[in-house]
Write a structure and sequence with these properties.
Helices cover about 65% and strands about 0% of the residues. The chain is an all-alpha fold. It has a two-stranded antiparallel ribbon.
Length: about 325
């Protein structure tokens, strides 16, 4: 039998599809608590300052790039807690590289498992996960600045793709308005790319501020779209927020307490949280597209938490 959280007991568009009222509110309380913890931790990171944190982190890890790397010197503007080139000379941070590759597979799973109901916009959303995973794999495998940009810049473009798709989700925009929105998001993202490329060479503060800002916009828009397009108790966006915040919290531990927590590879776990934090909004868009736009009353979530997909019953499959 299917896990209860993914069953539907009423036709699509009914509010009770997905979680029960109690489960939904428990998820939202958890989300609020995690948000408080994450914001408090970010305040601690800001108070300590990036320079002090980086000095503490680099003092705790073994950097063996010059002696064992096949990729040359580490030129990235940021480093992480995991020791470099300990497992193999082919990957700088082995476990962060492995978890980055897992991001690629999650994006491909989202595309292929739901292929029969995908549109170009939803394929773009899931594809952004694949591209980010590839860039992250290259970055953590080499810790080179050019590979760092291949990791960071696609995240901003992926945010733009998801935001655009959420805005035009219900297809009540004119073609001219859609074009204007696409151009505006494209120009904004390009400007941020230039700022990161030329002014983020001593850290990644501009990237972090840009990425966080765009994520907050599409997250809260996604909560609204979910309520209108699917129902209040599906909670894919709440699951997204919880995954992201848990990942962000352990990311902060990796930065703040490296000497103590190094053996837990928290940055690799951040990749898992961020991957699912992006996967669930893409799935929400796809489900809302089925239920609200295509009026497919049979569309419902199926499968376990880590491999959920959309079952369209006998009404779906037409793009």
């Amino acid at each position: 039998t299917e896990p209860r959280a993914w069953r539907t007991s009423r036709p699509a568009l009914a509010m009770a599809q997905g979680f029960t009222r109690l489960q939904a509110w428990l998820l939202r309380v958890t989300l609020a608590a995690l948000m408080y913890v994450a914001l408090s931790q970010l305040g601690t990171i800001a108070a300590k300052g990036p320079a002090n944190i980086d000095a503490n982190l680099l003092g705790a890890k073994a950097v063996r790039a010059n002696a064992t790397s096949m990729w040359g010197a580490e030129t990235a503007s940021v480093n992480w807690c995991e020791d470099d080139y300990v497992v193999t000379r082919y990957f700088a941070e082995f476990w962060s590289t492995v978890s980055s590759a897992a991001i690629v597979f999650l994006g491909l799973y989202g595309i292929l498992k739901n292929w029969h109901i995908q549109s170009l916009k939803t394929i773009g959303c899931f594809s952004s996960i694949v591209v980010v995973g590839l860039g992250s794999t290259a970055f953590h495998g080499t810790l080179r600045r050019d590979m760092q940009l291949l990791d960071e810049l696609p995240m901003l473009w992926g945010n733009a793709v998801i935001l655009y798709t959420m805005v035009v989700l219900f297809d009540n925009w004119s073609d001219r308005s859609k074009l204007a929105l696409a151009v505006g998001l494209g120009v904004s993202t390009a400007v941020l790319n230039v700022l990161i490329l030329f002014y983020d060479n001593e850290g990644h503060d501009i990237f972090l501020a840009s990425h966080a800002s765009w994520m907050m916009v599409w997250f809260f828009l996604g909560v609204y779209r979910q309520a209108v397009g699917i129902g209040s108790y599906v909670c894919l966006m709440e699951l997204s927020g919880i995954c992201y915040l848990v990942g962000l919290i352990v990311w902060g531990w990796d930065r703040l307490y490296c000497p103590t927590v190094q053996r837990y590879y928290f940055h690799a776990w951040w990749h898992v949280g961020a991957a699912y934090g992006t996967f669930f909004p893409c799935l929400m868009i796809l489900l809302a597209q089925q239920q609200h736009v295509r009026k497919n009353a049979a569309a419902a979530l199926r499968g376990p938490f880590f491999a959920v997909y959309i079952d369209v019953g006998d009404d779906g499959g037409d793009k």
